[in-house]
Design a protein that fits this description.
187 residues; 67% helix; globular; disordered C terminus
């Protein structure tokens, strides 16, 4: 059963993200980094109906916090609870495995093995990242679109919910213009 999220707990997570991502900026847009987790949380809210929507929004706000700051999973668990910490842990990439496997293969393997909730977060993250495609270099754009298509094609064999399918459609709509013949650098 879907319920309205507890705004005070979400506000606490927002302030925690703002404080811990302070001084960080998005690579291409130059915006303060916290705009990204806020965008991811909005995408989660748009696509997912759940009795755990509060936890999903909080996890979206904190999805990069362990990778990009001094915050640990244990700190997330202590402040925001087990469910949020578990999702954030699933969304946190392992740089050693990325190096060993290659980023596209690692992300595909990770997404094939995530819980349904974490997959909503990861697809929302990917969707928000696709909003920056117009700001990046042609080489980055080409590689990101190819990587995204590889991942989307690879996860079709796992059980996908309505929320997952809706997010995949949104991502497809964002990357398809960059795959067309009008963009010769992708061919």
């Amino acid at each position: 059963m879907w319920r309205e999220p507890n705004i005070s707990e979400i506000r606490k997570a927002l302030y925690f993200a703002i404080e811990n991502h302070s001084g960080q900026f998005r690579k291409f847009s130059g915006l303060p980094y916290v705009h990204h987790p806020i965008g991811v949380a909005k995408i989660v809210r748009k696509h997912k109906k759940s009795k755990h929507i509060k936890e999903l929004i909080i996890a979206a706000l904190l999805h990069d916090i362990v990778e990009d700051t001094d915050v640990t999973i244990e700190m997330v668990r202590e402040i925001f609870g087990e469910m949020v910490a578990s999702i954030v842990h699933e969304l946190t990439s392992d740089p050693i495995l990325i190096e060993q496997m290659g980023k596209p293969q690692y992300l595909l393997m990770k997404m094939l093995n995530m819980t349904s909730y974490a997959l909503v977060g990861k697809l929302s993250d990917r969707s928000h990242n696709c909003e920056d495609l117009g700001d990046g270099s042609e080489k980055f754009r080409k590689n990101y679109v190819i990587e995204t298509r590889f991942i989307l094609n690879g996860i079709t064999d796992r059980h996908l919910t309505k929320a997952h399918l809706s997010l995949i459609k949104e991502i497809n709509n964002k990357i398809t213009p960059f795959e067309t013949k009008k963009n010769p650098n992708l061919n």
